[in-house]
Amino acid sequence: MTARRFFVEGTKEIGSIVEIGGSDAHKIVRVLRLREGDEIEVIDSGATAFSASLENVGTVVRARLAGLVRGEPLRGPIADVAQAVPKGRRMDYVIEKGTELGAGAFLPFYCERSVRRGVGEQQVERWRRLARGAAQQCGRRDVPDVAEPVRFDALLERFAAYDAVLFAWELAAPGSLYERLGAALPTAGRALVVVGPEGGFTHDEAESARRAGAQTISLGRRVLRTDTAAIALLAVIGAFAS
Q1: What whole-number distance in Å separates Cα of residue 218 and Cα of residue 209?
Q2: What are 6-52's pLDDT values in tens digits?
Q3: Do residue 54 and residue 159 come from a single domain?
Q4: Count of domains forming the chain
Q5: Can you tell me the distance from the alpha carbon of 162 to that of 11, in angstroms, rounded to the nearest whole number?
Q6: Residue 26 structural domain
């Protein structure tokens, strides 16, 4: 059913008719070749999933919400990802795979050793489309938000909103990542994973993060690429969810 899962804006009720346009309508008509009477799954902005029956198939698709789709809620902490914007299209990989692994949101940022700066609105919109597509593909009931990129000092101000902040740094004290995360992660609530740029964080940035409440963690003996680090952390954090 995940191939037939589509997101709509706003909160809906059983019996409502929703409109689906753009690339999603193209997928319904041209890729899946669905017709009136076929069933799809619709998820609203409140992460409520509905079964729906297609009533009109064309440039704009209309579907009537028929009933609720039940699902087991995920347990454990939600992890957002603060990612230093990498060069090229490596952020695409972080957004897509991070969404599949359950990232709650993405907070791109720039710091002292950032290679890429000045990301425009079109690129941020591209990241949001990637998050939406990945959420549809993997069967999520929500689409993680992708924030506008900010400077490192602005990111530090957001640490206070989290129950735990995990600052990945290659110079942090070594130790078992699984054990360290087990001790640091809240049993519920929201955690923030912070991953640096290609050149790594400076000592001053790591110290500023500590003063802002972050815990520095090592990802092991090998220095991971920036686009690998967040994915590795999310995979391990996922092991704590049940």
Answers
A1: 15
A2: 888 888 888 889 998 888 888 898 888 999 989 988 888 877 888 88
A3: no
A4: 2
A5: 26
A6: 2-68
Residue 132 dihedral angles phi and psi, to the nearest 5°: -65, -45
Single-letter amino acid code for the residue at 147:
A
| C-alpha–C-alpha distance, residues 72 and 14, integer Å | 20
- In this structure, are residues 47 and 142 in contact, taking their beta carbons and an 8 Å threshold? yes
Do 112 and 12 share a structural domain?
no
pTM here is 0.80
Q: Which two tokens stand for residue 176?
A: 């078992």
Cα–Cα distance, 30 to 23 (Å, whole number): 10
CA distance 50 to 4: 12
Residue corresponding to tokens 């952020």: 91
Q: Measure CA of the first residue to CA of the last residue in the chain; give whole Å.
A: 22
Joined tokens for residue 36: 């009136």
Last residue of a domain, one of 68, 86, 105: 68
